[in-house]
Amino acid sequence: MFSSALSGLLATVAALAAFYFAESFVLDLGQHSWLTDLSLTMGTVVYYAERGLVTGPVFGALGLWWRQRRSVTAAAVIAAVFVLEPLAWWAYGLQTGGTACPVPGYPVLWLSEIAIGIACFVVLRRAARRGAGLA
Length: 135
Description:
Blueprint: H1 2-26, H2 34-69, H3 72-95, H4 102-105, H5 107-131
Helix pairs in contact: 1-2, 2-3, 3-5
């Protein structure tokens, strides 16, 4: 269990670092060097990495649970994160007066995330049923 939680943490930190590294090339952060852009984007990694100290191990443990038991519940929890995140941002935007609501600004992104969550659940559920001999 410890190794799966650690793997989840390391995967989370690596994904965050890679994402914000790539963002340093894409975002227009003003007239300065790329190293300054990198510094500005990487400063955000700390905020999310702190939260990743919890979510990384949790998702690592969910992955282990799925792998060992082909748990439909584990699959549902993982899929729910994809499906519910856009709804949570939408609710947060309503709570804050709509200024932080990314859903209307990026409908393709959020609808894609919901579709991916649903598709992942369907695939994992089918795999669980096959593993249990219920296909």
